[in-house]
Amino acid sequence: MSLDPKESAPHPRQEPRIPLPLSLENLERAFERCVDFSKRQVYLHGDSGRVATVCYIAGMARTERLNDYVMRPLAQDPMLASVPEGQLFDLLEKGALYAQEAKRETELDPVVLALIEGSCALFFPGRADALVIPVATEEKRSVGEPENEPALKGARDSFVESVRTNTSLVRRRLRAPELKVTEHTVGRQSLTPVDVVYLEGIADPETVARLEKKLDEIDIDGVEATGNLEEYLTDTARSPFPRLAYTQRPDRFCQGLLEGRVGLLCDGIPLGWLAPGTIDQFFKTGQDRAYHWMVASALSIIRYFCALVTLLLPGLYIALVTFHPEAIPVKLALSIVAAKQEVPFSTIFEVMIMLLAFEVIQEAGLRLPGPIGATVSILGGLVVGNAAVEAHIVSPAVLIAVAIAGVAGYTMPSQDFGNALRLWRFGLAILASAGGLFGLSLGCAALIYHLAGLETFGVPYLAPFTTGVQVRRGHPTLFRLPLPAMKWRDGGGKAYNRRNQR
Amino acid sequence: MKKLLPVLLTAVLVLSAVGAMPYPREMGDMALLRTMGVDQGQDGLLVTVSTGPRARGLQGEREPAMSLSAQRASLSAAALALQGLSDNYVFFGYVDQLLLGEDLADRGIRPVLDYFAQDVELSLGAQLWLVRGGTAKQAIEAGGDQGLAGRLSILRTDGEMGIAAIPRTAGEVYSDLMELGASYAPALECPDGESAPAELGYAVLKGDALAGFLEGEAARGLELLEGRPMTDVLEGWLPGGQVTARVTGAVTLCRLRPGDQGLSVSCRVTAQVVECEQPLTQEEIELFCEQIRAREESRIGEALTQMRGWGADCLGLGARAALASPGVWPGLQGRWEQVFVQTEPEITLRVELCQS
Questions:
Q1: Which one, A60, A358, A406, B152, has the greatest CB density within 10 A?
Q2: In a domain, B311, yes or no
Q3: Which of B224, B215, B187 is nearest to B315 (CA)?
């Protein structure tokens, strides 16, 4: 069934959104059938000849602020009743109200949007303008600990859902005025503020411009999930590998900015993204700079090793046991033969079933509330696994191989990157089932080809391991040098001012 | 990726079609062979294989070793026949112990080594033993329910630690035979009854056939010449009483004397006093060193005499000497075997003794 091109094409954005002149009546029309829209008439200092109408959205405006900053001065200030009518509006705009800001608006659109954001609008009879005063409520989750990136040694604050709180968390760490924050509105219906954060003079201006352009090009209804930004900012259709690193931790976010990356903060999402997201970003943790460099280096190498283990182990097991048994040490081979003799299924079937079971148990654990999820994981992992082995449905070696591969995957600091590896693990296992080590090698070659073809904001995805950006890389990627020796910014190879210390 | 996927699929399909893809086989159905013996039978080659101890199930219930034997005109035919004798798929990929019967060694072992070099599953990394005074089949069957694999593995490990004969792989013997025309391999004594096979010196091969066996003192002499002496305990009698020393090492250098005067062998033996009633004086040390020197020199002499008698420079002494005397070697290279046989080697031995 084909759609009519007129119907399938996106309808153009209407500018202005409400094509009506600014007036109290038109504002009421705009908020028609909105029970939370409120208005109140106030006599200025009790003078029934001078009436002002205050409009606001209940729940978005904070009652105490509205009363103290706006209502009280309007009702009690004697000067408002005595000042000539022509100067009244100017007096209110310049200081008669106790608000940090009072802005005169002459169009309906900004007034409507300001009300939605928590401001109140002041209308006077016979005037075609309004005074907008911010009295927004600040009800939001308080800054807590980053649950997904716990810190043993370091700051314990985490991004929250309010973008302005998040920018303040960044600004408190990077006090330089070179920290720039530009705001873009994404989503036709959600009108979500999305901030681009970067250090001027350090971040690559081309990356900033590219990111801002892509943000402005996003034409969707609303930003309700992280994918609403990630999938529009990077070309994720062809690859499961993430190309925007994200973090809950302001300190890690700031470290990224200091390396020359460009940050992204979105209202309603307690995360910060960093672009460009090259592959090494997904192996780093917020604690890398907190630990001693030798420990951090060892842990980094373990993480890279675990990535190979989680990716290759099931395929390698299938290839060796089914196609190349001579490559297995003799004592291990004897124990595999002994355990395999009473199992009715082929090794390939066993491994694929166990991989699937592992995913099912993991998914079930995630969907259930915390304590029940943990119980399901333990039941699934220990009881069912042990029972399956004792019932000769799977051999213990398969269970061990799949479990090691699964657990190794959890060492990935980035859940998105770990998920991509899990997906490729199935593909490699299938190729190993078809052609042994030959198939596995073919799969690995395809994976490298695929990764080498990816790009993130003009930077090759494998940039730490390639010379695609034509910039000499400052530091080794697999391990961390002592911090005094890390004199270069590694921000995806395109950092502007590369030297970071004497 | 759009371009790559069809290429990959095509490659997989094409390779599957031409049979280039490896063939899968379940390990649970396999009998993993560990030991292979080859004898000269009346109508061809007699091949005997054994698995070593096996286990079944999660608890690893022990099962007796599986032993199979087949006689055919060629090794390939015998190996194929073995497949038909077992309920399991007989897998040769784990054969790391090769026993050759004396009769076969008399005729020549080259065909067996050629087969090991060419077969997909077999490997020249297998340890090689020659069975003296019997057949490889007898030696393998002497392993009983446990098979011979465990015993031979221990002999190999002991040999690497210097407390048994020097272990040799089929590949080492094969390359020696091709480069030097002679080689040696540890010999096993064919047991009587059910006793486990034991080592009995070395078999010396010339061409690809058995030249003879070195045992006892001559075998120790070969080890000294190779620079890998077995940890040997030597007793000496001094005025102060009996003294015991352990040989800990040896370094042997070979040179060519100018003209046709043949080989000069210099050996430095290190030993450590392990038992003595009281600390030795300098005079007693010198006296004991002299006793050790005489004994070790006679061992080397005995080994060299037998090797010269067979005309088999199985240690490549000439080639080693050529490195030290490059000016002399070109004149001797073509007739080295003749010079080796006819010229008495000059042996110099020095002993370094340390007290613990």
A1: B152
A2: yes
A3: B224
